[in-house]
Specification:
This protein has about 210 residues and is α/β, with parallel strands linked by helices. A six-stranded mixed β-sheet has the order 2-3-1-4-5-6, sandwiched between helices. The protein has helices at about 30-40, 85-90, 105-120, 145-155, 170-180, 190-195, and strands at about 15-25, 55-60, 65-75, 95-100, 125-130, 155-160. Helix 4 links the parallel strand 5 (about 125-130) and strand 6. The model is unreliable at about 1-10 and about 185-213 (pLDDT under 50). The chain has one domain (about 15-180): Rossmann fold (3-Layer(aba) Sandwich). The longest helix has 17 residues, at about 105-120. The structure holds guanosine-5'-diphosphate and magnesium ion (MG). The site of guanosine-5'-diphosphate (GDP) has 21 residues, from helix 1. Guanosine-5'-diphosphate binds near residues 28, 33 and 51. InterPro entries: P-loop_NTPase (IPR027417), Small_GTP-bd (IPR005225), Small_GTPase (IPR001806). Keywords: GTP-binding, Nucleotide-binding. It comes from Xenopus laevis (African clawed frog).
Length: about 210
């Protein structure tokens, strides 16, 4: 499958498993849930339901000698849920802050999320910025260079993505997986302990065979 092309096969037996909590933040309707759905299930839904509270899913990325398992917290973007956000980003080792390249106000909101994370989340959190809906190039309102310059200045990973076409979705998670501190391998019991509360969550087991095609 095209959208799985960047996931590498590896040997069974010597694989180290590292588990990390990853949170998605960003304005409403920028495509957070769609990116997760694309990454975890390889699907896209034109009528993706609005997230209430937050949803939890899990998916793994296989690097050469390490399986990086992400516990993904997909938050609701509405302002009325803002006060819940710290519950999800607290203890997160990675965050994807998403904006919609056709809506400049969502880029401003993304910058505000980045600031909040840099002030209040774990000091070593790996933050990625995703300019989503790159398939809507004709409606683009945020230039690639503008977001890239901001990301560089702020020390973020940056990619333009499309949950619709799958462009850069696996690549984004793979790039984050590569930046995660592997020596900090957590045992699954510890990571499970850090999960927090599952509000309206549906737990998805990682696709079996993510490492093989
Ligand atoms: N064209 C296009 N539409 C998208 C993309 N990602 C999400 N959408 C649509 O944008 C709307 C909001 O998506 P959703 O995932 O619910 O956004 P969320 O509120 O950030 O979780 C839905 O109608 C999706 O089908 C994308 O990459 N391209
Ligand atoms: Mg959502």
């Amino acid at each position: 499958m095209a959208n799985r092309g960047s996931l590498r096969a590896n040997g069974v037996g010597q694989t180290k498993i590292c588990q990390f909590k990853l949170v998605l933040l960003g304005d409403m309707a920028v495509g957070k849930s769609s990116l997760v759905l694309r990454f975890v299930k390889g699907q896209f839904d034109e009528f993706q339901e609005t997230t209430i509270g937050a949803a939890f899913l899990a998916q793994s990325v296989c690097l050469d000698d390490t399986t990086v398992k992400f516990e993904i917290w997909d938050t609701a973007g509405q302002e009325r849920y803002h006060s819940l956000a710290p519950m999800y980003y607290r203890g997160a080792q990675a965050a994807i802050v998403v904006f919609d390249i056709t809506k400049p106000e969502t880029f401003d909101r993304a910058k505000a999320w980045v600031k909040e994370l840099q002030r209040q989340a774990s000091p070593n959190i790996v933050i990625a910025l995703a300019g989503n809906k790159s398939d809507l190039a004709e409606k683009r309102m945020v230039e690639y260079e503008e977001a890239q310059t901001y990301a560089e200045d702020t020390g973020l990973l940056f990619m333009e993505t499309s949950a619709k076409t799958a462009m850069n979705v696996n690549e984004l998670f793979l790039a984050i997986a590569k930046k995660m501190p592997k020596s900090d391998a957590q045992n699954p019991t510890h990571a499970a302990h850090n999960r927090g509360v599952n509000v309206h969550g549906s737990e998805q087991q990682p696709r079996s065979g993510c490492c093989g095609n």
